[in-house]
Design brief:
Organism: Nicotiana tabacum
Structural class: mainly alpha
Pfam family, one: Tryp_alpha_amyl
Radius of gyration: 17 Å
Distance between the termini: 48 Å
Function: Plant non-specific lipid-transfer proteins transfer phospholipids as well as galactolipids across membranes. May play a role in wax or cutin deposition in the cell walls of expanding epidermal cells and certain secretory tissues.
Family: Belongs to the plant LTP family.
Keywords: Lipid-binding, Signal, Transport
CATH architecture: Orthogonal Bundle
Number of strands: 0
Length: 117
């Protein structure tokens, strides 16, 4: 009989652990790696298909404000460097034909101000 409560606890933990969450920063960095040439101002007119696919996969994981804040902080720490690229990041969803909005995030942007549309 004591095994049933232990089993139920493990089952509950597995279910909670499997719920969607914001992508981890390493995942963000990997998925957005194809976007670097566009974001850094490459003269290429549009982001690559790989960039748009990675961006779509990441943005689909953002379900809550907390997810948005986490993604924003990942972008600040893994994507943005000394380049002046906030407006290029904000353009990505539109350029990729995605129904999402990303603010022009720079290293001073307050990610707690993110709102989900």
């Amino acid at each position: 009989m004591a095994r049933l409560p232990v089993f139920l606890c493990f089952l509950l933990l597995a279910l909670v652990g499997s719920s969607s969450a914001a992508p981890s920063c390493p995942t963000v960095k990997t998925q957005l790696a194809p976007c670097h040439s566009y974001v850094e101002g490459n003269l290429k007119a549009d982001p690559s298909e790989a960039c748009c696919s990675g961006l779509k996969d990441i943005l689909e994981l953002v379900k809550t404000k907390e997810d948005g804040v986490a993604l924003c902080n990942c972008i600040k720490t893994t994507v943005i460097d000394d380049h002046d690229i906030p407006s290029r990041i904000a353009e990505l969803p539109k350029k990729c034909g995605l129904p999402y909005t990303i603010p022009p995030i720079d290293k001073n942007f307050d990610c707690n101000k993110i709102s989900l549309n």
